[in-house]
């Protein structure tokens, strides 16, 4: 529904109210005379609530001209019904109308028409609404038929409202887009960091559910899908799929590790370690210390009873230079990082953002 305050002015001619006058161009009266003469019985069709302002007195004015022409004006506030279609909400435009009609007189007794067509409707240029932009006002008239009473003249005040989108961009679209982008962060997190990826996925899912609930709580209970529902639910699906993506990655990683463990147990051996030498380390030796200790056996370094806290380890000492060993270490670390990223994560980094951008292009081109 909508609420409108207006000055409703009626013009008609009643020769019974004419009077001879040479000085007065017209005579003005208040609402007390209205009850003593005939006035049109105009009412608002499909109105829910309406009243005439009465502060400090009834806002009614009656002006009579010498030739019998009458101007009858009143200040009215009316709340009327408007059939709105929210299928494009919040990118929608609504057309509403305020309808006026005689309650008792048919078109054979009383003819209602706009005095100057669209010029009969004067609006304040400073009118502004918080959620809508008033695009245009125009007037129409047609006949309305009632099966029990007949045909009546009906006047229409039509106006078109276009909803402001910026509020919904800040409150709905932008947070939903951020949640979808936040769910993509899990694709760059190590697949073995289970708490980090699971908590991130659950948080984004719950946040999207809160956004959807908040939007629907402020909307009428309509039985069709709105444009904002399409955007929010598609975003929710993207967030939910990111959680399922990690579930698939975690499951495939577990299966792969189980297979590798079985292979190691089947073909366990200590081959491939050339020129093993024995030495003693306590975990505090650097690489240079380890090189200087190469070639010494356990008995040459210290008796077992004197160094009970030391650990005897076997090191594979090769003849390569330190630089080659460092390059090998860096290559091993790089291989480790690559192995910690599953192939599904690599593809998801491209598929998820690309698909979501494509959806946004289609969405805004269709509804905007």
Poorly predicted regions are 272-287, 289-321, 329-338
* Portion in beta strands: 25-35%
Instruction: Kindly report how far apart the N and C termini lie.
Output: 24 Å
Shape: rod-shaped
The third-level CATH topology of the largest domain is Acetylcholine Binding Protein, Chain: A
Organism: Quiscalus mexicanus (Great-tailed grackle)
Membrane topology: Multi-pass membrane protein
Catalytic activity: chloride(in) = chloride(out)
Transmembrane segments: 165-186, 198-218, 230-252, 350-367
Would you kindly provide a written description of the structure presented here, covering whatever features stand out?
- There is one protein chain.
- β5 (60-64) and β6 form a beta hairpin.
- The protein has 368 residues and is an alpha+beta fold.
- It has two domains: 2-163, Neurotransmitter-gated ion-channel ligand-binding domain (Acetylcholine Binding Protein, Chain: A, Distorted Sandwich), CATH 2.70.170.10; 167-265 and 351-367, Methane Monooxygenase Hydroxylase, Chain G, domain 1 (Up-down Bundle).
- The strands form three sheets. Strands 1, 2, 4, 5 and 6 form a five-stranded antiparallel beta sheet that branches.
- It starts with a strand and ends with a helix.
- It contains eight helices and eleven strands.
- It has helices at residues 31-34, 166-183, 194-217, 227-266, 287-292, 298-301, 322-339, 343-367, and strands at 2-13, 27-29, 42-45, 47-52, 60-64, 69-80, 93-102, 132-146, 150-163, 276-281, 311-316.
- This is GABA(C) receptor.
- Residues 172-326 form the Neurotransmitter-gated ion-channel transmembrane domain.
- Residues 1-164 form the Neurotransmitter-gated ion-channel ligand-binding domain.
- It is found in: Postsynaptic cell membrane.
- The chain crosses the membrane at residues 165-186, 198-218, 230-252, 350-367.
């Amino acid at each position: 529904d909508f609420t409108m305050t207006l000055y409703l002015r009626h013009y008609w001619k009643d020769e019974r109210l004419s009077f001879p006058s040479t000085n007065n161009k017209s005579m003005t009266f208040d609402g007390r005379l209205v009850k003593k003469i005939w006035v049109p019985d105009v009412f608002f069709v499909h109105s829910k609530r309406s009243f005439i302002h009465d502060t400090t007195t009834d806002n009614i004015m009656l002006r009579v001209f010498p030739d019998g022409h009458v101007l009858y004006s009143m200040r009215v506030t009316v709340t009327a019904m408007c059939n709105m279609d929210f299928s494009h909400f919040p990118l929608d435009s609504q057309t509403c109308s305020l309808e006026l009609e005689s309650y008792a007189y048919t078109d054979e007794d009383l003819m209602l028409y706009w005095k100057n067509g669209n010029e009969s409707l004067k609006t304040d240029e400073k009118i502004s609404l918080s959620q809508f932009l008033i695009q245009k006002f125009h007037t129409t008239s047609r006949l309305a038929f009632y099966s029990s009473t007949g045909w009546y003249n009906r006047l229409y005040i039509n106006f078109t409202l276009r909803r402001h989108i910026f509020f919904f961009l800040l409150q709905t679209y932008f947070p939903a887009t951020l949640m979808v982008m936040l769910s993509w962060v899990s694709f760059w997190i190590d697949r073995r960091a289970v708490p980090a990826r699971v908590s991130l996925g659950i948080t984004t899912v719950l946040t999207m559910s809160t956004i959807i609930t908040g939007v629907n709580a402020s909307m009428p209970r309509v039985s069709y899908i709105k444009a904002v529902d399409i955007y929010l639910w598609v975003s929710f699906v993207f967030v939910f799929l990111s959680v399922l993506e990690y579930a698939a990655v975690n499951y495939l990683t577990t299966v792969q590790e189980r297979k590798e463990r079985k292979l190691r147990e089947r073909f366990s051996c200590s081959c491939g370690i050339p020129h093993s030498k024995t030495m003693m380390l306590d975990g505090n030796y650097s690489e240079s210390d380890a090189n200087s200790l190469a070639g010494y056996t356990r008995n040459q370094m210290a008796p077992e009873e004197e160094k009970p806290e030391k650990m005897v380890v076997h090191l594979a000492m090769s003849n390569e230079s330190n630089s080659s060993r460092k390059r090998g270490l860096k290559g091993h670390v790089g291989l480790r990082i690559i192995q910690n990223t599953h192939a599904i994560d690599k593809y998801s980094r491209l598929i998820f953002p690309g698909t979501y951008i494509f959806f946004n292009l289609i969405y805004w081109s269709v509804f905007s």
